[in-house]
Amino acid sequence: MRSVTVVGASLAGVCAARALRDQGFDGHITMIGDEVHLPYDRPPLSKAFLLGDESTVPLDVADLDVEWRLGCAATGLSGTTVSTVSGDVSADAVVIATGAAASRLPGTAGIDGIHVLRSLDDALALRSSLASGVRLTVVGAGFIGSEVASTAIRLGASVTVVEASQTPLSRVFGGELGALIAGWHRIAGATLLTGASVAGFVTDAGRVRAVQLADGTVIESDVVVLGVGSVPNVGWLDGCGLEISGAVVTDQRGVTSNPAVLAVGDCAAVRDPATGAVARDEHWTSAATRPAIAVEALLTGSSRKFAGLPYVWSDQYDARIQFAGRHEAESVAEIVEGDPTTGPFVALYRHGNHPVAVLAVSSPRSFGKWRRQVIDTSNLVT
Ligand SMILES: Cc1cc2nc3c(=O)[nH]c(=O)nc-3n(C[C@H](O)[C@H](O)[C@H](O)COP(=O)(O)OP(=O)(O)OC[C@H]3O[C@@H](n4cnc5c(N)ncnc54)[C@H](O)[C@@H]3O)c2cc1C
Question: Which of 101, 267, 331, 359 fits 347 for a cystine, CB–CB 3.0-4.6 Å?
């Protein structure tokens, strides 16, 4: 194998290129990315970067030895030839790492003051509009919406968080602990409206003025952030012959239905061979660690599969949330350290007698200890 094209010049793409070099590949690597920026890290965009600290954003790509094609969108894939807006790139193998795009609500495109937060350019635009006294409405109390709300409170904005479900974060943490963490918004001085769906936006001369809820409530707003999820960037793969199910489907190594094509990061979904189900982790750690396994399969034919637990962290209101494992409806959470009503705590989720997930708030050491006890539910026989 003499050449590899990586499509998507961000975390998963960079980690794939680094894995190729670390595993001895000395051929040509072309990195195609539609953004004009060199690769950067996204987690700070809703945290330190919004507060003005840019130091943590760039990803280290100094010694990758790749040909960069930035500001160059891929438009199609045929075998291992990638079509782009500026011509075709053929190689012996392709890594698909095109991530995901922030979802928008219908009719919001082009309205000034309504933001999403996925890219550096999104963060620059949002940062320039957040200031003390600004009335910010965040739609969606998931991780990104909650982090933006928390950062905006620190900047002195007047913040309302609108969440469609009655119990925010319950899918991730379960009802009780999800409600507890979502409750931090109120403690910090934001208004949290749950079970509230957005019916539309009031605009004036193309600029947002208010958010209208289905129950008739009108929230005067200078700035709106939509934190309503993301969709994998796979439209450019239409008709390429790979299996796509919302995301690019891979085996547990990250290899697609074409053995010379890998898919990693937020654009990929992994098929569980036991159940046939496909699952996608939209977490930094998955995008950073899975590419090395996929590259090993590409270079050596190895059957080693990813063995780690899903892990996500989030920083909100001076607390560090860490969660590892898989929480399901039937899991039962028990506080094993600390007290959630007063400060740091650790909760262990059990499925029957098996510890299947751990949640820690501002308890990094304890998190490490409890995490080692958690088993992967995808290997659980009940
Ligand atoms: C604001 C924010 C905060 C986050 N905070 C956390 C956190 O605290 N903890 C955590 O675990 N995770 C967090 N995440 C998630 C984490 O950043 C992602 O899981 C990770 O960035 C995924 O990396 P990726 O390389 O797969 O995709 P991306 O980072 O989305 O990169 C994909 C790249 O491909 C490019 N691309 C798309 N289509 C094309 C095309 N057709 N041609 C060429 N290039 C294309 C995109 O523009 C992008 O540059 C956060 C994400 C965001 C947006």
Answer: 359
